[in-house]
Write a structure and sequence with these properties.
nucleotide-binding; binds the ligand O=C(O)C(=O)C[C@@H](O)[C@H](O)[C@H](O)COP(=O)(O)O; Dehydroquinate synthase-like, alpha domain; zinc; 19% strand; 3-stranded mixed sheet; 2 domains; globular; 4-stranded parallel sheet; alpha/beta
Length: 355
Amino acid sequence: MSSLSLDVPIAPAPSWSYRIDIEDRFSSLCGYSSKRRIYVITQENIWRLWGDLFLQQACLEPASVYMMGDGEHYKSLETFEAIQNWLLAHGANRQSLLVAFGGGVVGDMAGFVAATYMRGVDYLQVPTTLLSQVDSSVGGKTAINLADGKNMVGAFCQPRHVHINLATLSTLDKRNYAAGMAEVIKYGFAMDLELFEYLESHREELANRDKSCLAHVIYSCCAIKSRIVAQDEKENGLRAVLNFGHTIGHVIERWGDYRRYLHGEAVAMGMVAAARISAHVRGLEHVQIDRLQNLLEFFALPTSLPLPFSVVNQYIGKDKKSSDTFVRFVVVPQPGQWEFVDLPFPFALEEYIGE
Ligand SMILES: O=C(O)C(=O)C[C@@H](O)[C@H](O)[C@H](O)COP(=O)(O)O
């Protein structure tokens, strides 16, 4: 595969942009190594599988490597503090460079550490899961969770570069692969009909992790995301479309103590609920909800809400898109099109989707 590249030009400073490279190997980072101390934040499992090759191909000699725990529940204030102390103990300074080597949990944590350590240091994203390659490594949303709310403490902090190596998807377990596919389906169903149809017609190839299909899909998602982030870096409006399925998805993750469901699984259930709300408020046809559900279920993703409506109603007010009087939902009147609707708060899910 020849490599693919995209730029993410951030407004209102169009001169400032960073690249996303999609390759079948780890990109060389020699240029960085010679100039500054490098600190890698990763997890045992991914580092055992890919760490040596990464250091060799990237030509890196890190000052130190930090192993985070595996799972969304490690995106916590405790881990955040431990990493800050580790950086200080290992001599990291303002010129140091952090490298997030792993999935979305590593990327969100490393990004937030980079945003705050000594008031901000540079970082690179080297995403190794499908979810992080198509979504979380791009756009600079960094955050950690509170017990009562997902991604509640964070910052917008763009990476200097996103280096995607498709080869790492070969060792991703089935459940995490499917979870990444949920975010891919989000881009298609809510933002790009052509992509959604491609996913439907190439589902077998994608289930078999065909590299050229994956390269196409990852490039398409990154292209959509970079266009949106370039216009609305700090989510003053447009960017919230990327939250399709997340409003209820985040409640599900929190309800499961960030352990029961992977982020992508919660988003899969949240998207079907949001599609049902879309049918109620914007007339999305039921046959289109079935298309969404079939595609998600093809990848063995859950699609029925696992929690009482009352829990959704109780926690939805903590969503970052909520105000005192409404909850903002991304709805889909037709596949590939989206709208925001503000539903009154206090919220009653049963009014939009029958029990
Ligand atoms: O980048 C964004 O903007 C997104 O909303 C992408 C989401 O898929 C992602 O999960 C994001 O981290 C959720 O953001 P949040 O603001 O709802 O915490």
